[in-house]
Amino acid sequence: MSGNQGNTSPTAGMTASWVAYAAILIVGLLSLFSLYMGFINYADNADIALVYLFIGAAGFAAIGYMLFRSKPATTKAEALEVKKAEVFTTLECPKCQQKRVRDFKRGDYIYKDDEPCTRCDGMMIITKISRKKEEEKKKDESSWL
Ligand SMILES: [Zn+2]
Q: Could you give the CA distance from residue 75 to residue 92 in angstroms, rounded to a whole number?
């Protein structure tokens, strides 16, 4: 007689991500196996083959759902951070036409007298508040010439 009382579940405190990856892997393998069985049996036993194909498709759908669901939580915070840094303010001096671009600050608005001009004694005025293009990088590297 063997008792089954020593049955412990050590995975209870494990990290959730590891369990999720393992689950995705297992479901993926089962789905692949089901699809494989479906294709093999298709010629002989179409009814069983359809069941296998259905199980395989459902498995892949579940994986897709799991991956899709786990995404937005991380990308939302990132997107918000990127948006903060994306806006910039263009200043122009009406006297000497000097232009300057800096990061957007709270309280910036168009036609605001923002800061004194560095070239003349005029005040620079905000002429533009816009979003930065993703691939817009400073070309400081070419200043070696
Ligand atoms: Zn100026």
A: 36
